[in-house]
């Protein structure tokens, strides 16, 4: 099921995509807490502005490792936090913090997991039970500060563009994507399955209690690229849409 969140005349609203018509059926409330009761209102994507499909209740947890690195030790995960103010939707500018000092920002495409319920110390065997859905995330950081000051490096406002679609049932298999940042970019394919994510979910729940709406980043899907003021970041996947963000000082 594909869920989006829109800014329309009466505020932010959630909608569920009817894939036959390409239109969204608006929901009465946040589906994470209130289910999927429809309001009866139907809109086309062109009639509303997409915003981040899920705003974390408290935090984003990420790891300084690649998606493919699934055999890491606890000391090798390199966990870091981003506040909920880091999360923005598509078309929202990424603001370069003044401590980037002209060296630019590092960006990587990542697959984000939205947590469905309050949980702590989740066993790997039960990791699938705490996933509400999946979304595209561009992880933005100041790489020169990653080792000595991860708060400044990873946690500044707008450093976690997310969306535009939240998919509740991503099938196992090949996950193909395209990622462009400024004049550089690449296409990639990873193998996606729940087992490859289980250790990260379990470890994240050991680091901190997870709350509904929290986002777990599952590691870089490809190489890091550099961006500067005036560049545009575009992350695209057939199932999860196109996440597009300009970079501004």
From TrEMBL:
The keyword ATP-binding does not apply. The keyword Ligase does not apply. It comes from Arcanobacterium hippocoleae. Pfam families: FAA_hydrolase, Rv2993c-like_N. SUPFAM superfamilies: FAH (SSF56529). Keywords: Metal-binding. The lineage of its organism: Bacteria, Bacillati, Actinomycetota, Actinomycetes, Actinomycetales. Residues 79-247 form the Fumarylacetoacetase-like C-terminal domain. Residues 1-53 form the Rv2993c-like N-terminal domain. This is 2-keto-4-pentenoate hydratase/2-oxohepta-3-ene-1,7-dioic acid hydratase in catechol pathway.
């Amino acid at each position: 099921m594909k869920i989006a969140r829109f800014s329309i005349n009466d505020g932010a609203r959630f909608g569920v995509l009817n894939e036959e018509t390409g239109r969204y059926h608006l929901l009465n409330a946040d589906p994470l807490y209130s289910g999927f009761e429809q309001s009866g209102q139907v809109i086309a994507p062109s009639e509303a502005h997409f915003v981040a499909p899920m705003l974390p209740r408290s935090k984003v947890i990420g790891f300084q490792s690649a998606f493919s690195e699934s055999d890491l030790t606890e000391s090798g995960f390199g966990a870091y936090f981003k506040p909920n103010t880091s999360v923005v939707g598509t078309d929202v500018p990424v603001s370069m913090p003044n401590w980037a000092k002209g060296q630019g920002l590092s960006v990587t495409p990542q697959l984000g997991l939205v947590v469905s319920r309050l949980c702590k110390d989740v066993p790997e065997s039960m990791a699938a039970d705490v996933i509400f859905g999946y979304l595209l995330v561009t992880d933005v950081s100041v790489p020169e500060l990653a080792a000595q000051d991860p708060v400044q490096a990873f946690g500044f406002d707008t450093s976690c563009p997310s969306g535009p679609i939240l998919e509740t049932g991503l099938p196992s298999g090949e996950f193909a994507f395209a990622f462009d940042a400024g004049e550089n970019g690449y296409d990639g394919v990873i193998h996606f399955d729940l087992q490859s994510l289980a250790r990260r979910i379990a470890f994240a729940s050991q680091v901190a209690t997870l709350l509904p709406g929290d986002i777990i980043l599952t590691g870089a899907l490809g190489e890091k690229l550099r961006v500067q003021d005036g560049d545009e970041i575009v992350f695209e996947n057939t199932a999860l849409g196109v996440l597009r963000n300009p970079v501004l000082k």
